[in-house]
Amino acid sequence: MELIRANIFEAYDDLVFGMSTRDGGVSAGTFGLNLSMNVGDVPEHVQENRSRFFTALGIGAERMAYPLQHHTANVRIADHPGTYEYCDGLVTQKPNVYLAITVADCVPIVMFDPMTNSIAAVHAGWRGTAGKIVKKAIAKLLVQCESRPSNLRVFIGPAAGKCCYEVGPEVASQFPASVVEGLGDGKFLLDVKEANRQQLLECGVPEQQIEVSQECTISTPGRFHSFRRDREASGRMMAVIGRRGDASGK
Prior knowledge:
Blueprint: E1 15-19, H1 43-57, E2 64-67, E3 75-77, E4 82-84, E5 89-92, E6 98-103, E7 107-113, E8 118-124, H2 126-130, H3 133-145, E9 153-156, E10 166-167, H4 169-172, E11 180-184, E12 187-190, H5 192-203, E13 210-212, H6 227-230, E14 237-243
């Protein structure tokens, strides 16, 4: 099974991070390694896909914390495994609590502060990005974990690229001109990854501590799920971040 890794996290032995692709699953057709229970896939197939993915990461399914994503800009504290309603981002300082988000074109953003051992995982679609969800996650890290933006290491994962992410004027108008390119006839290309990178910089995250994947989910059908490309036939990838503790969970 292929996993997306982040160079920026390699120095931290107790940190676990990985993101899935379409490779290595048992689901039929374009679902492949689908890791979402909410796209019409066979539940038993999703369970097997998750088992394979979590095994590849070396973690147990019982340690996972999931936001029940609704394209919001809400971020919650995850102090235990389980599901967290009506949010698209989670923050924790707890070891052995692994934060998971699912994506298929939206931007997966994961953060780690090695000074406070705090982590965050954010699902940033265009709505969440316009609502500045990464800034809200950083604010939550500061208040709850005393985590400074200058200490954060951040990975922005594969997502819809500016090359392919076409939007109308009602969406384009919610973003700065630096991340929007006009095509004419009321059509625009939106760089959602860059919009989030700029928000991280505005918060005080050093540029050299932000790693951005250049891969586009829409234009890479053999590798990534894409809702824009495959619509209802699209599965979901999952990005997971967490910090290992001892066997007792401490």
